[in-house]
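Appendix B. Chain record.
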Amino acid sequence: MTIEQEQQFLYLTTKGWKIGREHRIEIWFVSYADKYYTMSEHREKAHWVQNIIHNSRVMFTVNSKSFEGEGQIVDKTTDAKLAEKVSNLMHTKYGWSDGLTVELTPYKEQADS
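C-alpha cells predicted for this chain:
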C-alpha cells in the first residue's frame, strides 16, 4: 500500500468561476496510474466541480506534497474501464463510490520532483 493509498484526504484548490476566489476543500481520493481521482457526491452541482468545468487548472496537496495540474470529469460512457477501476478503488478504500469521478493530473515537471 502506498502513502497516497493510506492518506484519507487530499486538499483540492480550484478558482471560483463567478468571483475568482480560491476555493479549497478536503476530499477523499485514490491514486491510479500517476493521477489522482476524487468523487463528487453532488455531481456537477458541487461548486468545486463547476469551478473545474469552467477552469481546469487546479492545485492539490497529498501528504504534504503540493501539485499544480489539470482537473477533468471522467466520462463513464467514453472511458468506462477507467471509471470502473476508480469506482472499485474508491469502494475498496472508503466503502463508497457513488458519485461523479474527477481526474486530477499533475503537471509533468512537478510529478517527477
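Further analysis of this model is presented in Appendix C.
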